[in-house]
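Example record

The entry below shows one chain as it appears in the dataset: sequence first, then structure tokens.
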Amino acid sequence: MTDQVENNAEAAAAEGQQAPQFAIQRIYVKDISFEAPNLPELFNTEFKPEVKMEMNSKSRQVADNNFEVVLSVTLSAEVEGKTAFLAEVQQAGLFFINGFNEQQTHQLLGAAAPESLYPYVREAVANLVGRTGFPAIQLAPVNFMGLYMERMAKAQAEANGEGGAAEAGSETVQ
């Protein structure tokens, strides 16, 4: 079996084909905002927040085989009907993608790249909330491939005239 793998690699090299490449070039914060409008008054209440999260990702090609992906997360928390905090993070990455077909590239930009950025968003949100004096908030893991597949199914249903309008790339998690 090893000989077969080596022979396939040699054949691909001989034909001038390169193996597909997906690589992170840079990860950076594009925008970050935090508000805690009802402090210090809320420190006198029990912190049992109702937390809502909205998430969206978008991508654009910035050069040959280089794509910027921005994962935007808005997290809001209310305690006893008052806003405890509002955090907005736009975590971005520059990704090198080469050797994939259009559908595979779309999937990498819609699922794999945001999944790569999400741990940085989680860290930024935990850091921002922690600086307020509130207990730490840890965002739950997200199945980006599952969300991507749902968006594609909705888009297909809309193209076939079967559904209402859906906002591509946006999810609300409670």
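Notes for this example: The two ends are 48 Å apart (CA to CA). Confidence is low (pLDDT under 50) at residues 1-9, 164-174.
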